[in-house]
Write a structure and sequence with these properties.
The chain is 21% helix and 20% strand. With 211 residues, the protein is of the alpha/beta class. The protein has five helices and eight strands, in the order βαββββαβαβαβα. The protein has a six-stranded parallel sheet. The protein has a two-stranded antiparallel ribbon with strand order 3-4. The protein binds pyrazine-2-carboxylic acid and zinc ion. The site of pyrazine-2-carboxylic acid (VGL) has 9 residues, from helix 3.
């Protein structure tokens, strides 16, 4: 059964940035493999938005800000447990730029997130304190957007959290699995799919859309 994309559906392309691609500081394995597929999928959509992880150089999600910590360890921040990352997506650097191989000229919005030093934001809707809003729900509501289709990096972090929060915001959300790649540290990918299923996020393959 082919999924029929509607004119008011929205493709959300998550964090297709140099630092998450091969050669980047937080490269997601196989991240470059999904670029052509995302470009192809985007042709099915009238509406496309991008997200862009966008951190100050001293962001508290960076292990470098915690002298006794290494990347992929965790730290307790006021809002809860935070995974620590290599420095990545520092604003206005090459690593933070969207890949030039993403060829989606009709994309409509670039939503930046994670720009407050003290608060990370995997989700494109709500920052990690689970209070601060990014404004994306307001944008989508005002534009009368229908369903959300999510692709990009990384399945178990920014894709997963965006999908779950999109569902909580009242949207019918589908993740196109083969147009994502995961970091998968410490069981994070399996947990993300379980959490997405609990949140009624649909999981499909691109061939169900492309036929
Ligand atoms: C992401 C870890 C840290 C992501 C962003 O885009 O999934 N992961 N910042
Ligand atoms: Zn980040």
């Amino acid at each position: 059964m082919t999924i029929e994309i509607q004119p008011n559906d929205m493709l959300v392309v998550v964090d297709m940035q140099n630092d998450f691609l091969p050669g980047g500081s937080l490269a997601v394995s196989g991240g470059d493999e999904i670029v052509p597929l995302i470009n192809t999928l985007a042709k099915q959509f009238t509406n496309v938005v991008f997200t862009q992880d966008w951190h100050p150089a001293d962001h508290l999600s960076f292990a470098s800000q915690h002298p006794d910590k290494n990347p992929f360890e965790t730290v307790e921040l006021p809002y809860g447990t935070q995974v620590l990352w290599p420095d990545h997506c520092v604003w206005a650097t090459h690593g933070a730029a969207l890949s030039v191989d993403i060829d989606i000229p009709h994309g409509q919005l670039i939503l930046r997130k994670g720009f407050r030093r003290e608060i990370d934001s995997y989700s494109a809707f709500q920052e990690a304190d689970r209070e601060t809003q990014t404004g994306l729900a307001g944008y989508l509501n005002e534009r009368d957007v229908g369903r959300l289709y999510i692709v990009g990096l990384a399945t178990d972090y920014c894709v997963g959290w965006t999908a779950i929060d999109g569902s909580a915001a009242g949207y019918d959300v589908t993740v196109i699995e083969d147009a994502t790649r995961a970091i998968d540290n410490g069981g994070s990918l399996a947990k993300a799919w379980a959490d997405m299923a609990d949140a009624d996020v649909k999981r499909v393959q691109s061939k169900e859309i492309l036929g």
